[in-house]
Specification:
Layout (H helix, E strand, L loop, with lengths): L1 E5 L4 H16 L3 E7 L3 H6 L3 E5 L12 H19 L9 E4 L4 H11 L3 E5 L20 H31 L6 H10 L4 E3 L16 E3 L15 H8 L5 E4 L8 H15 L3 E4 L13 E4 L4 H4 L5 E4 L3 H9 L4 E3 L6 H11 L13 H13 L1 H15 L3 H15 L1
Parallel strand pairs: 1-2, 1-4, 2-3, 4-5, 5-6, 6-7, 8-9, 8-11, 9-10, 11-12
Helix pairs in contact: 1-14, 3-5, 4-5, 8-12, 12-13
InterPro entries: EryCIII-like_C, Glycosyltransferase_28, GlycoTrans_28_N, UDP_glucos_trans
GO biological process, one term: carbohydrate metabolic process
GO molecular function, one term: hexosyltransferase activity
Length: about 400
């Protein structure tokens, strides 16, 4: 089949689909991945065709004000929708749509008659088991969680409304609101496979038919890739270090966070690797601290003692896969949800909110997760569970079912 995967957002919203696409390609499918321009190298490195989505900029991942977050997300989706149709060519047999792109992709599927399948990184359907993932809220009880989940979907409809309306107009489709389209897909039991582990999110029993949790899709890593020589030397020079990084968060705060991280490491008596990320994290920590750039988590995380991270979905899963305990510093959106999930598993300390992060608090949490065995034991147990899951294989099964039905 000729498959188009459409994903948009920060790197964590795109990178998992490089591994999924590579697995589908290895099974004999013709796979293209549509994303915004900065991710073209990632897509092509995985051996996939790159299709450009039109947004010139990505929404900032570190915005914490709710209204500003909604405004920037709506502007991003509206811009995305203006050229989304150009990424789908006449020969496309199947659309695989992410959480971000599905509200636009549904309209493309209607216009072209192309079947679609949801491949989400976050659960979005209302459930009594937990509150809406993207709000960062604590549990409100089963009734409250479901009500909040429905409200979150209505807010998501508002964010995509203008982009969807303009896209429908461009496609020559009759007007239809974003909420009406979503409800239509729900009535049809439109299938969605969630690329996260059941170790973190077991599929809720009160979900509608057509929703499933299948296991993670891991970013593509070239089998020949190795860690940089200076990093290998650092890892071999002493006890396992702690990896500290904030992914696409904290833009422009690298110097402050780097100094804070070094103070915490020294206070806890630990070595550290600082991953620069969007923050530009860096510090002069002497021989016991090394700053690195883009390094695959699959190669580095199994060799560290613990990970300090922002609790993005991908980094949270990667740390568990490596069997490594964590200290989470959530910033916004779905990060508090994943941080609480890791803590509930016993594989992470209680979350440290980014806004109130201190060197003393970070040092204390690091001292616990590195030196108290239950944290590492819980992380290793989750890693064993995740090793039994094959999220890409589950998507391939669904794709082949769709192919047989055509």
């Amino acid at each position: 089949m000729k498959i188009l995967i459409a994903a948009a957002g920060s790197r964590g919203d795109v990178d998992p689909y490089t591994g999924l696409g590579a697995a589908l390609r290895a099974a004999g499918h013709d796979v293209a991945l549509a994303a915004t321009a900065p991710f073209a190298p990632l897509v092509r490195a995985a051996g996939l065709e790159f299709r450009a989505l039109p947004a010139d900029t990505r929404p900032r991942g570190d915005v914490t004000d709710r209204r500003e977050l909604m405004r920037t997300a709506a502007a991003f989706l509206t811009e995305l929708g203006q050229g989304f149709a150009g990424a789908v060519d006449a020969g496309t047999d199947l659309l695989l749509l992410s959480t971000t792109t599905a509200p636009l992709g549904w309209h493309l599927a209607e216009a072209t008659g192309t079947p679609g399948l949801g491949v989400y990184l976050q659960p979005t359907a209302p459930t009594g088991d937990f509150p809406p993932v993207v709000t960062g809220a604590r549990s409100l009880g089963r009734l409250g969680n479901r009500a909040a989940g429905r409200f979150a979907l209505r807010m998501a409809d508002r964010i995509s409304e203008q982009g969807a309306a303009r896209l429908r107009d461009r496609l020559g489709l009759a007007p239809l609101t974003a909420s009406a389209m979503r409800r239509q897909r729900e009535r049809e039991h439109w299938p969605v496979l969630h690329g996260c582990s059941t170790a973190l999110v077991p599929a809720p029993a009160d979900w509608r038919p057509g929703l499933d949790v299948v296991g993670n899709w891991w970013p593509y890593v070239d089998p020949a890739q190795r860690l940089p020589a200076d990093l290998e030397d650092f890892l071999d020079a002493g006890p396992r270090p702690v990896l500290i990084g904030f992914g696409s968060m904290a833009s422009g705060e690298g110097e402050r966070l780097g100094e804070l991280a070094v103070r915490a490491l020294r206070r806890a008596g630990l070595r550290g690797v600082l991953q620069s990320g969007s923050a530009g994290l860096t510090a002069d920590g002497g021989p016991d601290v090394l700053t690195v750039g883009d390094v695959p988590h699959a190669l580095l995380l199994p060799r560290v003692a613990a990970v300090v991270h922002h609790a993005g979905a991908g980094t949270s899963a990667a740390a568990l896969r490596a069997g490594v305990p964590a200290v989470t510093v959530p910033v916004t959106a779905d990060q508090p949800f994943w941080a609480r999930r890791l803590a509930a598993l016993g594989a992470a300390a209680a979350p440290l909110p980014f806004a109130s992060l201190t060197a003393e608090g970070l040092a204390e949490a690091l001292d616990r997760v590195v030196k108290e065995e239950p944290y590492a034991r819980a992380a290793r147990a989750a890693a064993r569970h995740m090793a039994t899951e094959d999220g890409a294989a589950r998507v391939l099964e669904a794709v082949e079912r769709i192919a047989r039905a055509r």
